[in-house]
Every structure is written in C-alpha cells, then in structure tokens.
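#struct-pred
JK: can someone run the complex with zinc ion? inputs below
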Amino acid sequence: MLWAGLGVPDIRGTWGTFFYFGTDLTQWDVGDTEFGGKLVRLEMNGNAANAEVEGPVDPTAKSYKRISVPIQFRVNPEGTAVTINLGGHTETVAERHWSDWFRVKFRITPFLSVSAISRFYVLQATPDLRLYMSPLDLDPESPPLPISSPGDYTAELVHKHGLIKTLGWWHDTWALNEEKIDEGVFLEDAFRTMDKQAEITLDELKNDPPTLLVSVFLATDHVSHMFYRLIDPQHPRYDPVLAAKYGDAILQTYERMDGIVGEVVAAIKPGSTLLIVSDHGFHTWRKGFNTNTWLVQNGYMALKNPGAEDKTYSLENLFGQGSFFPNVDWNHTKAYALGLGQIYLNLRGREKSGILDPGPETDKVLEEIRQKLLAVRDPDTQQPVIQSVHLGHEIFHGPHMPDAPDLQVDFYDGYRTSWQTSLGAIPSGIVVANMKKWSGDHCASDPSDTQGIFFSNRVVSSTDPSILDIAPTVLKILGVATPGQLDGRALEFSNGQPRQ
Ligand SMILES: [Zn+2]
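RT: done, structure tokens with the ligand placed:
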C-alpha cells in the first residue's frame, strides 16, 4: 500500500495555496501573494460578507479561468464568532478557533465535479473580520487524481481516523511566511498534523504489521524553516518578544518526534530493524543571493531593457499563467539561474534560443563563472558567500544528465539563493537581507556541513553511512536483489539481533 506524500498538489494544482479573507485588505492587496497565497477582500453588508473560493482551472474553458464557489460569513451579534456557509455546510466558529473540515465541490460540467477539503481559522470576528482558510486538499474519500495504491486506501484511512490532509506539503509555511497567520496558529496545525500521522503510523504497525513500513514526518523540516530566526539573534527577523514565546518551537518539535519514535519502538515486532533517517541538516538563512542579477552584472546574462525594474514574481504568475524571464535577451545570454543554487548554460539544442555548444569554449565559461562566484564577498562583512561550486557532471550522473544543471552553487551558513532568484527574477542588489519568516534552510548548502541524522536499533559497523545507502540496506534486509541502477551500498550491522 502506498499513500503519496510530498509532491501531491492541492485542487488548484499548486503546492498549497492558502486563502486569507479580510475586511482589512485594500483593493491593492487582493490577489496572489509572492508564495502560495490568495488574498480576498471582504466587504461587510450588515453583519455578513460574501466572497468566492477560487478552485481548479476549468479544463473545459478555452481561456485560463478558475472555477469558483460562493462562500458566506456572518458575524454573531456579540462579535465573538463567525458562521461560515460553504458548499451546503454551515459551522459557527469562535474567534481564535479552528473549524471542522469543510467539503467543497467544484462543478466542472453538470455531470462532473471535483471535491476538496479545507478548514478555517477565525483570526478575528470584529472590528475587522479576518479568516484563514487552509489549502484545498484533494478529498481523500474521492480524490480526483490517484494519490494512493490501492486507490481507496486514503478513503479507508478516513474511515478509521477521520478526514486527513492529502496535500504533500503538510504544514502551512506559506501562510506564516506571508504573515497571514501567526506562529501559534501555525504550530497548533503542525502539531495536530504530526499527531495524526503518528496515530496512523502506530495503527498500521499494531493492527496489520507490514513487512516494511516507511513513514515520513515533515514537521522537523517545516518548523526549522520557519522558526530558525528565533534561535539566531543575528537573523534580520530575530524578534526577542517572539523568541521568548516561540524560541523553543524547533526543540518542542524534536521532543514530540522523539516521543513518537518511542511509541514506534514499543510497537514494532521483536526482531524488527528500525532506521530513523533525515535527509539533511539545517542552517540559518540571513541573506539571499540574487544569482541572476550577478550573472547580468558579470556579463553572462543580457537584458532586452536593462533599465527596466524587474517586477516581483509570484508562484502563480510563473506556474499559473506567466512566462519565465520576460526581459532576458536570450540571443546574448550564456547562463541563467533557476531553483535553489542551480545555474544552466543557454545551450543550443536544449534551450529554445540556445547560443552555446558543448566543448572546450563552453567549459571555459563554466570554470570562469565558478571561479568568480567563489570570489564573491558579502559587501557588509567581506565574508565569502559561496562555499563550493560543483560542475553538473562532477556530482550528477544517469540518463537525465542532458537536463541536469551545469553548475550547483553551495552557500556558506547564513546564505541561500534569494526568494526571487528561485522564481527566475532579476531584482536589484546582489546580497539582500532575508526579511521572511522562512529563515532556516538547507536547499543550497554544502552537503558536507548540512548532514542529516541516522539512528538504528542495530549497531552499524559500516563507516560514513550515506542516505544513498538506505534503499540498498532495506532491500538487503528484505532479501530483495538491488536493481542495477541504484546508488549506494547496503550497510553492515555488527550484531545480528536488533536491540529492543
Ligand atoms: Zn526543507
């Protein structure tokens, strides 16, 4: 059985678009946030306000259009609670409280609709009416896409455990990052989600113990991303008041995780091997590096209109309806950056308007970029910013090499690719303060100082274990032959018997 995780989209086809409904928004605020939010302005009519929830793109429409359903909010006479009416379901929710799950149906044709689930948090009822609505998760009882195998496995889980999130990105980092919910609301949801995953994991272990069970928890990652600023007094978003209240959020998450591990240890069958693995460590992320701007300033990227101020990009205008790099003059551009630390050459045959051919001249360009990047200094401190730059063919191999990045940039502790560079933008400035609450990272750090953890209930005798070794190890324990293409090697255990 498999229940898909990271990568499962919401009903809008994104990694989780949250909604914020508020009378405090001006007409200029409404629309899409930089990362994953939809802001909807409310206007009160007496004690009620009507709005729309914008769902999936209409596959039957010729032009790009999303399907919406109406929603109504009504504040009670005391101004302490809000009655939410959505999709035929009504619930009255007190201020600073969560609603139950709502099921939302988006009608595509008279005969076909797709269903999602979401819940609300009433941030404020009066004087401003402000509500957070969680991303529209695919309905686990009737997902419009296959998200489990067998297909009814998520429905079976709902039957046993109640409605469950299906969005692969479990915790609403985007709503906190865009400052539409506070730390307390984020943690409440994160811990509840974590507990639900623990409940399901333990139930699977106890009631129908499988030969192999893999359970992934995301809270240690997501909470570290969001709360690193509160354990780093040098972070631009360090806040002593918030640090006093939430400075132990990462520790609390690890303690909770530790408690779950304890329950798993008690639940597994005698003789079972337990492997606890994380795929990376963490760093503070104080400053962003505008890689594309650096490429422009160093002559590797050309602009059609060099004087034009680049607009602020959002996920929605890139992946929804926008285009990448509208101001780039591809006929004179040698390299571009996209994602977190990746630089690609503008290669003929691979890129639409490629100008470089593979060969010694192009290799020289790569080496030149690498050397210049390693020499970059933070203008405030004169510290080096980039720890290592790897050539793609040094670190990647396999059948997808032609699409692999040509350079991978790894930053020193405190630095990462900027938010806007990750979306392909070219803003002004090279090294810029990270003013977001997403303040810890690992995505463009050198793996040598960003190691994850590895625990086992058996003594591991292999030295220097790597995450690449986990799959071969599991296959060996199960007595399954390793497929030829797999990286890594099976770990050796020095004693046969797992410790209980
Ligand atoms: Zn992460």
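RT: quick notes.
The first strand starts at residue 2 and ends at 3.
The chain has twelve helices and 24 strands.
JK: thanks, will look after standup
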